[in-house]
Amino acid sequence: MVEIPVIRWGKQYDSLEKQEVVHFETGEVLAQVHQANGGMLKMDRRFSQRARDVLRQIPIDTLIEMMAKAGDLYLNATLPLGNGTQTPAEFCRMQSATTGLPEHMSAFNMKKNFFVLTHMREILEALTRGLPLDILTRGYGKEARGIMLSYQANSPTLGMVLPSNSPGVHTLWMPVIPLQIGLVLKPGPQEPWTPYRMAEAFFQAGIPREAISIYPGGPEVGAAVIESCDRTMIFGGTATVERYHGNPRVQVHGPGFSKILLGDDVVDQWEKYIDLMADSIYLNSGRGCINCSGIWASRHTAEIADALGKRLGPIAPLPMTDSKASLAAFTIKGQAEAISAQIDEGCKQPGVTEVSAKYRGGDRLVVHERCDYLRPTVIHCASPEPTIVKAEYMFPFSTVVECPQDKMLSQIGQTLVCSAITKDPKWSQQLLDATNIDRLNIGDVKTIQLNWLQPHEGNIIDFLFRNRAFQNEAPPAH
Amino acid sequence: MSNVNAPATEAQLRQAKEKLDAHVREIVEWHFNPATGSPFWLEKVSELGFDPRKAVQTYDDLKKFPSFEDEWLRGGPISRWIPQGLKGKPVYVFETGGTTGIPKSRMQIDDWKTDYELFSHTLPDEHFPKGSNWLMLGPSGPRRLRLAVEHLAQYRGGICFCVDLDPRWVVKLIKRGNMKEMEAYRDHVIDQALTILSANHNIRCMFTTPKLLEALAMKLMENGSSIKASGITGIFSGGTEFTPQWYRFAMDELLIDPENPSSGPVFMTPTYGNTLMGLACGKPFDPADNYKITYFAPQPRAVIEVVEFKDYNTLVGYGQTGRVKLTTLTKETFIPGFMERDEGERELPIEKFPWDGISGTRPYHEFAKTTTVGVY
Fold first, then answer.
1. pLDDT by residue (tens digit) across A108-161?
2. Same domain, yes or no, for A202 and A272?
3. Is residue A52 helix, strand or coil?
4. Rounded to whole angstroms, what are the CA distances from A368 to A189, A329, A374?
5. Is B171 inside a domain boundary?
6. For residue A210, what pLDDT is reported?
7. Is the CB of residue A447 less than 8 Å away from at least one CB of chain B?
8. Model confidence over A185-199: pLDDT tens digits?
9. Is residue A451 part of a domain?
10. Do A16 and B248 touch (CB under 8 A)?
11. Which of A110, A133, A301, B372 has the fewest CB atoms within 10 Å, i.e. is most exposed?
């Protein structure tokens, strides 16, 4: 039995409380994860500054090289895991077995993390807009055009309260260590695998152990992370987003409500974009905040919905080991059933029709002994009025909403990724001006096609550093 | 010298049972005798379908009573709980809950003093020196704990210093998600404690909760001090947050003097209790238990049973998990079979406490999702 300890600034701590991580299909216990208590984080907070100090002793250029090495180790090496070891294949199997994500998707996510770690220089250059990186170390310096700049770290550490169900989110914290900021990670209860494997890859690549803590535990530990770190990223639903809205210390990554908008200039050729729409909805099992949950057009919406239903409706669950498996399992009892019932309720409103049902050849909800699945669901909405238009779920689900183009931007609500397919310059400008859209794609771009050189839900540099005034000589007379 | 943690002998178990059964007969006679009983129970007799004074001769006979309903303790008149035999004595009312709606309340005259006097005899004098002063760093207001700890200090010849702490306000802040205000309020409470500790009052003993102990320890460390360096030598604390892991963490990290770790931690003893029961004592610390915490009710005044989740009249086996069932048996209060909001594992009797114990107390899993615990 693998036992995974708490990591307190690099040191293993064996707790008296352990939580079993079990295989969702067989019930087999895959590991026992030692549990931290909230007070431990407050105690360890005294050494937060040391985490940044030890990282600042290593030039950012060197840390970037270490990240590339860590990426290779993470992807290819057998690494220590608690009192045992773990190969890359075992990592995929374990992650799949506890999160319900098919194994090939776990492997894909590994490659995504590898890509980010091995392209760190370009990513940091892009996110800092070409800032000489030693300014982040020293706190000040002159850029090439001779202007004095100062960037002050808002916190010596970044806290991460990580989810269980979306292994894709780990790319968000990859740039933190090369920015010379320590990491305080609280893994999701079902997904301890990535934080531990990544941390071990970092250590073996030369990152000082004193820079990283990992505290598995319950909600009390999550609250302690937020309290103990001056900057924390958390993941949650709309309620969590609202709870921390306006709190500069906390960046919440919530539902995406990502959408595809078809402009009036292209909508008559909608068939051309079916692949783009279908992939945006269902790749990575539709779990991500960047998966599309709403397609908006002014006409042809019934035909678009029908075509998507025909494409996605027949997709059925396959074993986790099947390389064609495209649906993740719901491993929390009752969750899929509740979602399905919610969708059925939403479909009772006027103007709402589920079009995927007729192509599915079975129920949306597939009940297994220890897990459930939800099969892809496409809903046609004759207007933006029905409640279900604002829904997003963690499986391939999308509404297709009929709405005049000139009303779309005021009706779509908050949207993390908006892929607007149009060449209309006037509408493109309106899209660029719409503050309810975070990531904007204009053109034939799937919502899930992220360019890592772009910021995601806010630039992490702005979150971790404060660009402030600094002078060490009097300014020119004026 | 005998080992108080040794398993109880057959003779000890039998004696304890006989004592409990005799106590049950005495208490039932008192509460159901028209000359001494409380209006509540005297009125209830007609609904029971049996005469408790005849039908209840042993503790097991208490199963004849229907489940004690939580709601009976909410609202007034509080006087319906005052036994005729105690009429005219000064009455205290202590409350539990009450963040929203009407709190549960218990009328008491001397029980709270008696419970803490009995508890006092379990405290080791070397860690809780007689005559030394106390800090009560816990809930104030209509809570029994506030007065009880002060009485405990006085009973041991000391003086108790207290802080203002309104747990209902803390629960409201947490439910609103206003963690910043909650932290500010906690800091306000800790500031009061620091002021008292810095004022040369010879404080050696303290009651506090796990959350507040952490906050106090951290604040003292920030100031270059520690709980140990502040002069405190004995702490009693409790609640479902007092887990084995937390106990070890506290002993290893919160209660040592960072300047002199080899001098060992401040002594701390766990307790489990509430306004209805009184105070259950922790089994004396034994390294062999690996910080497992086992509580024993102050029998015969109160009895804890660990019962099946689906049959509250059936005990679970030793080591098995069940819900906490509480019976209070004093002349002031008779509460047969109150289902607590906690669960835990049934533990074997020991020499010091020759009746069932309970370990691993935690919020009952059915309620845990909606219960706000560890707020102060």
1. 999 999 999 999 999 999 999 999 999 999 999 999 899 999 999 999 999 999
2. no
3. helix
4. 22, 10, 11
5. yes
6. 98
7. no
8. 999 999 999 999 999
9. no
10. yes
11. B372
In a domain, residue A310? The reply is yes
Instruction: Tell me how far apart the alpha carbons of residues B98 and B170 are, in angstroms, rounded to a whole number.
Output: 12
CB < 8 Å to B254, chain A: 39, 43
Q: Tell which of A37, A41, A242 to mutate to test the B interface (max B CBs under 10 Å).
A: A37
Residue A453 within any structural domain of the chain? no
How many structural domains comprise chain A?
Answer: 2
For residue B239, the model assigns a pLDDT of 80
Separation CA B71–CA A285 (nearest Å):
48
A215 Cα distance to chain centroid:
20
User: Looking at CA atoms only, how far is residue B218 from chain A in angstroms?
Assistant: 7
pLDDT at A383 over 60: yes
Co-location of A286 and A408 in the same domain = yes
- Tally A–B CB contacts below 8 A: 39
A 32-71 residues inside an 8 A Cβ radius of B: 35, 37-40, 42-43, 46
Q: Is B240 part of any domain? A: yes
Strand A140-142 and strand A148-153: the pairing is antiparallel
pLDDT tens-digit series, residues A211-248: 999 999 998 899 899 999 999 999 887 777 777 888 89
Give chain A's radius of gyration (CA, Å). 23
| pLDDT, mean over chain A | 95
State the total domains in chain B: 1
* E strand or H helix at B368: helix B365-368
Alpha helices in A315-424 (DSSP H): 335-346, 357-360, 405-411
Mean pLDDT of B248-265: 93
Q: What is the ipTM of this complex?
A: 0.85
Q: A214 lies in which domain range? A: 2-254
Taking the Cβ of residue B245 and every Cβ of chain A, the question of whether any pair is shorter than 8 Å is answered with yes
Kindly state whether residue A377 falls inside one of the protein's structural domains. Answer: yes
Q: Which of A254, A275, A310 is the last residue of a domain?
A: A254
- pLDDT winner (highest mean) among A66-75, B140-149, B334-343: A66-75
CB of A381 closer than 8 Å to CB of A352: yes
Structure-block tokens of residue A104 = 């090939």
Residue B122 lies in a domain: yes
pTM of the entire predicted model = 0.90
Q: Does B182 touch chain A (CB under 8 A)?
A: no
Q: Print the domain residue range for B218.
A: 110-275
Q: Do both A15 and A115 map to the same domain?
A: yes
**Percentage of the residues of chain B whose pLDDT score is greater than 90:** 76
Residue-level pLDDT at A478: 84
Any idea what the CATH number is for the domain that residue B124 is in? Answer: 3.40.50.980
Comparing CB atoms, the residue among B210, B244, B253 nearest residue A16 is B244
Q: CATH number of the domain that A370 lies in?
A: 3.40.309.10
Q: Which token pair is A11?
A: 């040191």
- pLDDT over 60 (residue B75): yes
Of B210, B218, B245, Cβ closest to residue A16: B245
Question: Is residue B185 situated within a structural domain?
Answer: yes
Same domain, A55 and A190: yes
Q: Own/partner pairs for B366-374, CB < 8 Å, 24+ apart?
A: B367/B341, B371/B341, B372/B171, B372/B174, B372/B175, B373/B239, B373/B240, B373/B241, B374/A220, B374/B209, B374/B210, B374/B211, B374/B239, B374/B240, B374/B241
